[in-house]
Fold:
Amino acid sequence: VVLPAGDDLGILKWNADDLLLVGTDQVLDGVHFDSSVHPPRAIGRKVMNRNLSDCAAMACLPAAAVVTLALPRDRGIDYAKEIYLGVQEAGDVYACPIVGGDTASWPGKLVATVTIFGRSHGIEPVRRSGAKPGDIVCVTGPLGGSIRGRHMTFAPRIFEARQIIAGGLAATAMLDLSDGLSRDLPRLCAASGVGAVVRASAIPVHEDAIELRRDGRSPVEHALHDGEDYELLFTCPVDRAAPMNPNHRTLPFVQIGTVTAEPGVWIEHDEDRREPLEPKGWDHSL
Ligand SMILES: [Mg+2]
Structure:
């Protein structure tokens, strides 16, 4: 950062061999958080972490961010500061400074937006479009039940993403699971022009999903459809997943399925029972 927040624009100095990656993500009161329940610092952390999770999804490092707040008229400056502190706290974990932004108050609900700038720093960004038939499908951690609190407190998988690539796993396609496996896996497959089969028994189920089973849906259903897990979903060639590298065993991932040439995403309950994996996840993009 050559010039931090405070002037009309911030100034960043860029390494010539770094690619610049940029994206933006917002959180809305009543959709991504509930301002009557969640403290402003947690809201700030969440909007930043969602953007950092997109950096993880591309295997890039965050370089800088800008923050915009649309603040309800009845919230004061101290409330806004708490949100900024939350954004900053989340960014500090990955040495990502806030280099600008804008705050305005209005008669509507709270909206917080972060735009993030990432750098490739020696690793080719992983897109959604490179999955090949025969690749294995993997996730970096257990899924489901994030509504019990993890949707506000998750940790972006930036180091894990870099570690997976640096460990020689050669991910062919990757994204972060924001809307649930049943919605995000079809997106990855569509971008790659492939299909996939996932094994129900292989899906790592979070204990939060087990807690939620009282609502009549099984833990696996929660793991497939709930969303806001922010674990990484990626594909890689099966031979590159073999333990060629001594680091391999420590890499944080679980294989849940296989990429197929024919389009369509299937869930296999046992050897002779499979059904289409229908998206029932929470769709934030509506
Ligand atoms: Mg994403």
